[in-house]
Amino acid sequence: MPNAFRDEQQRFPRVRAAYERTWPGWRLLLTAHGVDPKQPEIFLRAFKVGRQLEVWARTRATATPFVLIRTFYIAGTSGTLGPKRREGDGQVPEGFYQLDRFNPTSAYHLSLGLNYPNASDLYQSDIQHPGGDIFIHGSNVTVGCLPITDAGMEELYVLAVEARAAGQDTIGVHIFPFPLTSENLTARRNSAHVVFWQNLRAGYLFFEQTHQLPHLTTDARGAYSVR
């Protein structure tokens, strides 16, 4: 069906080519998982350990749980475990984000921007220079971003365009160091970041247990809470 956002994106040759290569497969995959390909709602979840970017989906405007439909390998990484706190630190952020930009002419083929720094980051990061321009993008190299190769990015970009065209204005992206289980946190209990990771855990567990997205707020100290 015609849609202004989709039509605008498809003016760009890379996006048109990506649609030709990937959208037929997405339609089949979504349908196989019980998701209406005309009304996809998506959610992204990434883990640094294991270098995975998960794509979850459901039919928009339903209360059904999200289902895992695709996992991309994060083809390059930088920094270490722990959040991003200043410009130039090379860190991939950790926390709860949203896509805020579609870039069909990226230097890294295609890219989707994250709203880093978010409210929590602004409280806890370098006040003057928190950094920015964090993307999920093509290629296999990065400084602080999440590259999933050009081919992988074509797939993800097209699905994100379709979700936006279907009316999903907010696409969540949760980035964790690793699955925030009690066992994993206990194994890293001496890390300088353990208090921060404990704060992320409520949001992680809410989705893990329900496959629904948590409603998140940020307090005056930059801590997340789920309600």
UniProtKB/TrEMBL annotation:
Transmembrane segments: none annotated. Residues 42-176 form the L,D-TPase catalytic domain. SUPFAM superfamilies: L,D-transpeptidase catalytic domain-like (SSF141523). PROSITE patterns: LD_TPASE (PS52029). The keyword Aminoacyl-tRNA synthetase does not apply. Belongs to the YkuD family. This is L,D-TPase catalytic domain-containing protein. It comes from Hymenobacter citatus.
